[in-house]
Amino acid sequence: MTSLTPSWNIIKTELSNLEIITDPLQISKLSLDYYHFSPILNNQLQDKRGDLVVRPNNEEEVIQIAQTCVKYKIPLTVRGAGTGNYGQCIPLKGGIILDTTKMNRILSLDPGTACVETGVKMAAFDKKAREIGWELRMAPSTYRTATIGGFIAGGSGGMGSITYGQLRDRGNVQSVRVVTLEDDPCVIELRGDEVQQVTHAYGTNGIITQLEIPLAPAYPWAEIIVAFDDFMTAARFGQALSDSDGIIKKLVTIQAAPICRYLTALNDYLPDGKDCALLMVSEYDLEAFHDLVYHYQGQITYLKTAQEASKGTSLLEFTWNHTTLHARNIDPELTYLQTLYFTLEKVENFYHYFGDEVMIHLEFLKVAGKAIPAGLQLVRFTTEERLNEIIDYHEEEGAAIANPHTYILEDGGRKVIEPEQLAFKKLVDPYGLMNPGKMKAWE
C-alpha cells in the first residue's frame, strides 16, 4: 500500500458495484504467474502480492477502476490468465490487480478478421472461428487457458510463428483499445503501427480492453512425431520442413534426446536415445511430407489426423515452453533460456559445446521472411553466475538471448529502450501507476 492510499475499506466502497476479491488465498493466486520457471525470479518475486483484485465485466467498469486508482494514486497491475513466465503480471508494489477474464465477448468474427474483448480465451475463440474456416494466426503452448489480451501484452510467438512470424511483426495485431490512467481516464484506439506502443509492454502503459486481430485459414492439422538417430539430422530436417514452401505447417519442434525422457506421456512414441520432431502439418500435404521424412531417414512413430488429434492431448502441450513445464515436473532444478540461433551452424556449435548442461529444444519461426531455428533450451541450473556465463557465451557467438530471468521489460527480449512505449506511457500514465517497476525507461 502506498503512503497516499486510504483505507482499503474506502476503496472497496467506491468499487462496491464491481466484483471484488478480498480472500488472501485468491489474491495470492491472482498475484502470480509461472515466474518460478526461473530460480532468479523465484527469489525476487515470491513474496510480491496485490492488495485487492477487481474483475470488471466491460470497458466502462475498467474506466471506473482507472479513475479510482488515479484518485488515490494506487498501483494497478493488469492480468489475463497469468500464464506468462517472467513476472509480467506480478505486482511489485501491491495495489489493485485488474483481472480481465470476465471481459470475454467475441464482438465480431468475419473471414480474415475478428474483434474481441481482452479476456477471450484462445482455444475457445478458435473453436468458434473454425466454424467459418478460420483460426488464430499464432498461439502459445498455454493456448487452452491463455487470454488473447494477455498473450498480446506479454507474449511474443508460438504455434503458427513458423508461418506468421512474431506478434511484433507488422500486421499481426490490427488495432487495440486501451484505457488510460490520466486524471480523467479515457479510451484511446491505436491502429496499424501505433499498436507497437502497447504490444508486449506488460501492461505498463495502457489497459487493453479490445483487440482487432487478423486470422489465418484453418487447415486440418495432422499431428506427427518423427524420430531420428542423431540430433543434427533432426535439426536439418526441421530446417528443410520449415523451408518447404509447398508444405503448409503450423509447428516445427525439435527435441534433443535428453529432453524426450521428460515428455513421459509420449513415451510410447519417443524411442529411447532418439532425437525427435513434434510437428503439425496440413493433412493435404502429407504425401510431400512423407517424402521429406524418407529423404532424412526419419521414422514416423506417431501420426494423428486432425479429427483424431482433436479428441486427445495436442502435441502443442509438449512444445514451446510446455517442454520446460514437463521437464521441471520431473526435475525442478532445471530452468531454461530463449534464444534466436539464426543458423544451424550455431546450433551445432552450442550442442557440442555445452552437452547435456544445455539441452537443445528448437522451435522454428519466421524472422524477416526467413525460417530460422530458435531455442527454448533446458539448462541444468547450478548458480546465477554460471547461468550468466552461459548467456554471455551465446551472445559472444552471435546468438540472441531473450533473457527469461528478468522481469524488466527492456532487459528481456529486445535489450533496448523503446522510445515509443516510453512516450506513450508519459502520455497515458503520468503518475507511473501501471505495473510499476517493470519499465526501465520510466524508472
Automatic annotation (TrEMBL):
Pfam families: FAD_binding_4. GO terms for biological process: lactate catabolic process. Residues 46-218 form the FAD-binding PCMH-type domain. GO terms for molecular function: D-lactate dehydrogenase (cytochrome) activity; D-lactate dehydrogenase (NAD+) activity; FAD binding. InterPro entries: FAD-bd_PCMH, FAD-bd_PCMH-like_sf, FAD-bd_PCMH_sub2, Oxid_FAD_bind_N. It comes from the Bacteria. This is FAD linked oxidase domain protein. It comes from Rippkaea orientalis (strain PCC 8801 / RF-1) (Cyanothece sp. (strain PCC 8801)).
